[in-house]
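Contributing new records

If you add data, match the layout below exactly. Sequence lines come first and carry their own label; structure lines follow with theirs. Keep one chain per record. Anything else will be rejected by the validation script.
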Amino acid sequence: MRHVRVIIKSAVEIARKLEASALLVVTETGECFEELKRIKISLPVVLATASEELFQSMLKEATESTIEVEFVDREVKSRLANVQVLKLLSRRSSPWEMVEDAIVRGVEKGIFHDRDVVVAVGSTITAEASSIFYYEVREEALDLELYHFLRDIRVKPEVFEAVLNIALEIGKEGREGRMIGTAFIIGDSKEVLRYSRQLILNPFEGHMVGERSVLNPEIKETIKELAQLDGVFVISSDGIIESAGVYLNVDTSSVDIPRGLGSRHAAVAATTAKTRSIGITVSQSGGIVRVFKDGRVVLTIEPQRRFSMR
């Protein structure tokens, strides 16, 4: 679309005139990315999206240096640098929120630093390249709580994000035209299995490790299909699914969870209180995704809405 081309060219020019540290582009459809490939840019480019499919596509192209970028900073001059690509945890309701989440994500990954000046192009699910923002990074003003949480959990961040994204898709899409509820326990899997029993034959028993990894994109549809069954998924800290259809046999009397949450949520909370694990639940009513740690809810995400730490 013509307006995307105009916005991208304008953002590049603004970033150049302001001597910005980077150009951040949040894209929903990939149109911004296509326009960027038409331009030679003299500063680092950071692409961000909440779409897993688009993230993988842009990551592949950026790794192959599709966009030629001359990287200039205080120490290194005129060398070729790869474009950075960020995966956002979820979509937000406004371009500014999407940009701010991308800035936070970039700070967490060491791409952006305190006092950096960033020119950003904002997009949402309904409007690609709808805004241009000037952003001066102030770490003390950013909400880094989510990413501090990611550092603190006892599983690999990429494993947590992979499971969270699957949970978000289940919460948004349901299965076979109906909403479903399910749960995942990640980390400390041997100890978790001590507090559980199989409700069904373990569908993952006997499969190769690579076939059971949540980081393997080919397993996603299998997980969604099995999520319709009773019980929870037990996943190792490295992302290997140890079992599905598991009943958590724990005492839930001492856990303090929000009123209205059912037995699945209580069992997940109690398990994370007794073991060094993280729990993720999807509510059948509304598809709300909650993350549990140390026996309490630490993160709540509603489909298409902003997450909250609590």
